[in-house]
Model the fold of this input.
Amino acid sequence: MLPGPELRFVNVSRSYGMIAAVSDVRLTIAAGSFVALVGASGSGKSTLLKTVNRLVAPDSGHVEIAGLRSDTQPDHALRRAIGYVFQNIGLFPHMSVADNIGIGLKLRGQADRSARIAEMLALVGLDPALAERMPDALSGGQRQRVGVARALAPASGLLLMDEPFGALDPITRDELGREMRDLHQRLGLTTIMVTHDMAEALLLADRVVVMAGGRIAGNATPTELLAGAGGSEAQALVAVPREQARRLAMMSNPDSGYSGHG
Ligand code: ADP
Ligand code: MG
Done:
């Protein structure tokens, strides 16, 4: 399986009125890597991600996918070729699971879609019997799986996810996170996942890119971040799960005299 494409942000900027949502971002994402994009709310994560599939057009700068500028093809063709998963997945409520998964294939004129739909259901661990259900007859986790299947059905190699599991309970979220990492590996994708959860980022990603105020404030591997590198913004985020782990460890050690809530 070929790895997903390399991605380059070349001096990408985007403002909304007076707000500089993304400022002069220069960033290369290696082919086949899994990158977590983290940072405070409003730091520009979603805007930067959307410049890749041009749901947001940069004011200046551009994005290169496998060495080709993304603005050299029509936006609709670009979007169809890039998997995109977001929090409130936006399944079409009046369409069955199978039709939702097959929509990208249908839009590009593929007549025989059933084999690919069955393959995608299996890929994301959904019972084939769910194919004819409507989205409102699924659990939240099942809906996100359908969203992932829909994003991957056209086989683009590039997967963008914007807080994909934010609305799920912690157990389902953890399970889906691991499965996404596994899928990423098996399919050889290039994956960018926006999350505000540094623990999730550290556990799933090859690299963690930290945004602050529309700029890249850090770009390091989980190992580097856990060793204290990556810059002060990154370390402030790493401190949260680390401190939680420390408190839990103390609570489970009866000799520590720790009673919790400290
Ligand atoms: P994040 O995903 O990190 O929370 P966003 O990229 O959504 O950040 O937003 C970055 C900044 O741009 C914020 O100040 C936000 O309010 C602003 N912004 C984002 N989208 C729009 C929009 N469509 N119109 C106006 N301002 C926006
Ligand atoms: Mg966002």
